Amino acid sequence: MKPVKIFIVILILAVLLFYVNLPNQVSWSKNIFGRSIEGQINIPHPTIYLLGTPIPTSYPLHLGLDLAGGSHLVFEAQSQDLAIEERNRLTEALTENIRRRIDIYGVSESLVQSAWEDEILRIIVELPGVEDTKEAIALVGQTAQLDFRRQADEASVSAGFVVTDLTGADLKSSGVDFNPNTNQPVVTLEFTDQGREKFAQITQEVQGQILAIFLDEVPLSFPVVEEPITQGQALISGQFSLDEAKKLSAQLNAGALPVSLDLVSQKTVEATLGDQSIRKSIIAGLVGLAAVAIFTLAFYGSLGLFACFSLFIYALASFFLYRIIPITLTLPGIAGFVLSVGMAVDANIVIFERLRAELRTGKSYQVAREVAFGKAWDSIKDANICTLIAGFVLFNPFDWSFLPLAGMVRGFALTLSLGVIVSLFTGIVVTRNLMRVFSK
């Protein structure tokens, strides 16, 4: 593709990235003759349909607890002498049940992470916007209550359900299997010896009716008992996807494993502190970008314009990735972005210095430009690979034992690494094509 066509594609990409990064609403206020006038500007973001597939043009920016405010809780679950399989089942069950409670409560953009340290399961919960710590503890820390309920009226499901004496204490475990005839996922239930007798009697009494399953007073499933089950093992079949079957199984295990959560740490972040952090971070980022732009323009002249445009594309692309992945943006994450700004302009500086060196040997501009990019690539590649390795070590995907700092450290590592990858694109593709198009 010719450089001019690539330049046009870059311009279109810049406009699209700029539009997607625009907020849905912009609030403004002015003081005119001692009177405060406020207003809002709505920016439309319609959904575009491409070959029948909806493509949204608005992606929210997810803010972490330190920016949005809210509650930060750390729980521990004491569980001795558990096998690896039982540990995994306990982890999935507790985290899924906590997420379910949070969803029912209506908290958006929450974070639930878990890690084992020796025989202690540690769970960290971040609830943006929830500043009432007592309310958050009551929401998350209660032990799951599972029970089975029969129809109050055989003729009508809407009449409600009657609680039976079959509870989560009678359920040994739940899992996921596949129906050999239909190859559809099914949820398996295995009861204890005492639960087997209760389940056998209840299924004989309610054959052909619904035996509903409730968790924390909220219905999970409404399976119909097709025949009496006396062996203590049952299947829940339906039009499940694999993810839906795993989710239901984890929720059942949450009620079958009556493990209490002990609160070991709590912290409340006020929203006003988050607003101040956002403002200061934006100012710091703008100052950093301005300082880099002034330096490149003063030291490299017209070449500095290419670097500034490349940085503009870099910033738009980075925030677009934060939105679409999505990445929960925290203060350390913003620090990683600001640091990666310096990494982004570094590639341009290496290219410009190589260009100056080649021009001093008497080469024409076009030849010196291509040679400079070829020689600068080795240095740029090595430097960025080293930074990516450092980011991988900081992200440390194999170990979660250093919670609760894991979220902050990983946020920094992730934004830094993404910034390095985007800077390779803007430094090599954007800057190079700008220099080719405007070579004269």
Give me the side-by-side strand order of the main sheet.
Answer: 6-7-5-15
Largest sheet: 4 strands, antiparallel
Mean pLDDT: 82
Derived structural class: alpha+beta
Let me know the CATH homologous superfamily of the largest domain: Multidrug efflux transporter AcrB transmembrane domain
Radius of gyration: 29 Å
Number of helices: 11
The strand count comes to 15
What spatial form do the alpha-carbon principal axes imply? elongated
Q: How is the CATH topology of the largest domain named?
A: Multidrug efflux transporter AcrB transmembrane fold
Percent in helix? 40-55%
CATH top level assignment of the largest domain: Mainly Alpha
CATH architecture assignment name of the largest domain = Up-down Bundle
The tally of domains stands at 4
User: β content, as a range?
Assistant: 15-25%
How would you concisely characterize the structure shown here?
The protein has 440 residues and is α+β, with helices and mostly antiparallel strands.
How would you sum up this structure, described in words?
- The two termini are 20 Å apart.
- The radius of gyration is 29 Å and the shape is elongated.
- With 440 residues, it is α+β, with helices and mostly antiparallel strands.
- It has 4 domains: 1-58, no CATH class; 65-143 and 261-268, Alpha-Beta Plaits (2-Layer Sandwich); 147-236, Gyrase A, domain 2; 270-437, Up-down Bundle (Multidrug efflux transporter AcrB transmembrane fold), CATH 1.20.1640.10.
- It has helices at 3-21, 65-68, 84-105, 133-140, 193-205, 242-256, 271-300, 302-324, 331-360, 365-395, 406-437, and strands at 25-32, 35-42, 48-50, 53-55, 70-78, 111-117, 120-128, 146-153, 156-167, 171-178, 185-191, 211-215, 218-221, 233-236, 262-269.
- The strands form 5 sheets. Strands 6-7-5-15 form a 4-stranded antiparallel beta sheet.
